[in-house]
Design brief:
Elements lengths: L4 H13 L4 H12 L4 E4 L5 H6 L8 E9 L28 H12 L4 E10 L3 E9 L4 H5 L21 H6 L16 H11 L6
Antiparallel strand pairs: 1-2, 2-4, 3-4
């Protein structure tokens, strides 16, 4: 039985993650490190994952690979005398995930497109690589397709900067419902503002 391209892509990716695929994976990451930080691709490397997130092999879609430095914030050491605890250097964790940062950098590189989604493709000791799916909202093929024409609505302009992608919703805590997530919607900041505005002052 003939194997589809998406299934073949999935099997190839899983083979690379196994120990026997380490030499090939190393050569691939070395080649990716020599490319620019944001590289436009002819087709997605993980075709199965791209199709599951909405990508289609038709005009109006674009794929970009983004390279990011791994780790948290790297701040320079303070020369003046101070305890390490008070320097504000250690344990500085970013509020955004690297995937969200990759999506934003791809959006800045292609300002006339909109980010649809993204996924992880690889990492080494220093870098992490993501493939970002982008859509041209003004393309006639996109506007004529009822499955993706929603992205041409003005309310979705700059959606990556407002946490409207899948990675953005995960970072905003919108993956949880019910008990323990009462203050996640519409956002944590909106709930804080509402609480400060409505809390009553106790007069002794």
């Amino acid at each position: 039985m003939a194997m589809s391209g998406s299934k073949h892509s999935a099997q190839t990716f899983r083979r690379l993650l196994k120990p026997e695929g380490a030499p090939q994976r190393r050569e691939l990451l070395m080649a990716w490190r020599r490319t620019p930080a944001v590289t436009r691709l002819e087709h997605p490397w993980r075709r199965d994952r791209a199709r599951s997130l909405g990508w289609r092999a038709k005009p109006g879609y674009l794929v970009a690979r983004v390279r990011l430095r791994r780790g948290g914030q790297r701040k320079r050491a303070i020369i003046a005398g101070r305890r390490p605890k008070r320097k504000g250097i250690l344990r500085m964790t970013l509020a955004k995930s690297l995937q969200r940062i990759a999506e934003e950098r791809a959006q800045k590189h292609f300002p006339n497109l909109e980010v649809l989604n993204s996924y992880w493709v690889g990492e080494d000791g220093r870098h992490r690589f993501f493939e970002v799916l982008l859509v041209d909202p003004d393309h006639p093929v996109i506007r004529a397709d009822p499955r993706i024409s929603w992205i041409a609505d003005p309310s979705h302009k700059g959606r990556v900067y407002r946490g409207r992608t899948s990675a953005g919703q995960r970072g905003r805590g919108l993956r949880w419902k019910g008990m323990g997530a009462e203050r996640m919607r519409p956002s944590r900041k909106a709930n804080q503002k509402y609480f400060r505005r409505t809390q009553s002052k106790v007069i002794p």
